[in-house]
Write a structure and sequence with these properties.
Layout lengths: L4 H18 L3 E5 L1 H4 L8 E7 L6 H10 L8 E7 H7 L6 H8 L1 E2 L2
Length: about 110
């Protein structure tokens, strides 16, 4: 999927669906759509930061993916709590640290 105005609308729609389902503090776009050049087969990479959760990260991601059923775009989603993100930001080589520093906030 190349970046077009339609892609921008799809990203906004996906962010809104995730916001309605997960009530996040932030949603950050990362990967080729945020800091590279997306190719026609690129997917969307999102970090969803929720205030807190009793669910394990994989269960949170499943919940996020379920609310996007029917969306014709490939999406990879990380769902982390604010505390998990704060801990990960202290690790210099952490992907979460890179996402927070270089990603694009979309919600």
């Amino acid at each position: 999927m190349l970046y077009t105005s339609d892609t921008s609308r799809q990203i906004e729609n996906i962010a809104n669906l995730l916001a309605d389902e997960l009530n996040p503090e932030r949603i950050i776009l990362f990967g080729s759509y945020a800091w590279g050049v997306p190719a026609k087969d690129s997917d969307l990479d999102l970090l969803v930061i929720v205030p807190e959760s009793d669910l394990k990260p994989t269960r949170r991601a499943i919940k996020a993916h379920r609310c996007l059923i029917g969306i014709p775009v490939a999406v990879d989603i990380l769902v982390r709590t604010k505390a998990e993100v704060e801990r990960a930001k202290t690790i210099p080589s952490s992907l979460i640290k890179k996402i927070v520093e270089k990603g694009k906030i979309i919600f």
